[in-house]
Amino acid sequence: MVKIAPSILSADFANLEKDIRSVEKGGAEYLHIDVMDGIFVPNITIGVPVVKSIRKVTDLQLDVHLMIDRPIRFVKDFIEAGADRVTLHLEADSQENIFSSLGLIRSLGKKAGLSIKPKTPLEELFPYLDLLDIVLVMTVEPGFGGQEFMPDQLPRIAGLKALLARKGLSCEIAVDGGINSETARLCIGAGADVLISGNTIFSSSDRGAAIKQLRGI
Ligand code: DX5
Ligand code: ZN
């Protein structure tokens, strides 16, 4: 079954614990945390201290999505704060630093992810595939919640799925941006293993029902 990672970017930050409980109870597998620096993307969100506080109130696996320039500078800090899964952007650092960051995440016993923006050629992922637990295909331009899904990403998801199968690699394909019940169905059809969703889940008063609907059940 597809896994669901609610993105707290659309949660109520003044009532974050309550919102986290609601998606825990609703059956989510991961909690997605968007970290933005105002440089790699034109928005600023949350940082290390918030992850540390969240860690204290939930046992959900914390799925940290770093949309920051030169993420190598902060990988260790986020893991020390409690991240279980750390995804960085391949556009955000040098190849050498990306290799080092992925190695560091894995050496600390955590899941390593690499994300790709909608317009970056898929081939740029290829050198790293052996080192990845997660490939995160952005289905919007990163930076903001509530944007419209980009259907031109579907063939990329399917292509990646086929490539991973050919190579015998078992890393998860996650999709992020504009995921609702309709686009979820398309992404699952294309091969997505994890659906990250902010607006659809947190705008619903029944989080469990929203999560079920995304799974298509
Ligand atoms: C966007 C973030 C997403 C965002 C998704 O840059 O990476 O995780 O929260 O939000 P929705 O599901 O509202 O498109
Ligand atoms: Zn995200």
**What is the count of β-strands?**
8
The span between the termini is: 10 Å
Briefly, what CATH class?
Answer: Alpha Beta
Low-confidence stretches are none
CATH architecture: Alpha-Beta Barrel
- Dominant shape: globular
The kinds of small molecule bound in this structure are:
D-xylitol-5-phosphate, zinc ion
- How many H/I helical runs? 8
> Which sheet architecture does the biggest sheet show?
8 strands, parallel
- Rounded mean pLDDT is 98
Could you spell the SSE succession in H and E letters? EHEHEHEHEEHEHEHH
As a percent range, the share of helical residues equals: 25-40%
Task: Summarize the structure in words.
This protein is α/β, with parallel strands linked by helices and 217 residues long. It has a single domain, classed as TIM Barrel, CATH 3.20.20. Helix content is 35%, strand content 20%. It is globular and about 45 Å long. D-xylitol-5-phosphate is lined by residues 7, 9-10, 32, 34, 65, 140, 142-143, 145-147, 176-179, 196-200.
Describe the structure in brief.
The chain is α/β, with parallel strands linked by helices and 217 residues long. The protein contains 8 helices and 8 strands, in the order E-H-E-H-E-H-E-H-E-E-H-E-H-E-H-H.
List descriptors.
8-stranded parallel β-sheet; 217 residues; TIM Barrel; alpha/beta; binds zinc ion; binds D-xylitol-5-phosphate; 8 helices
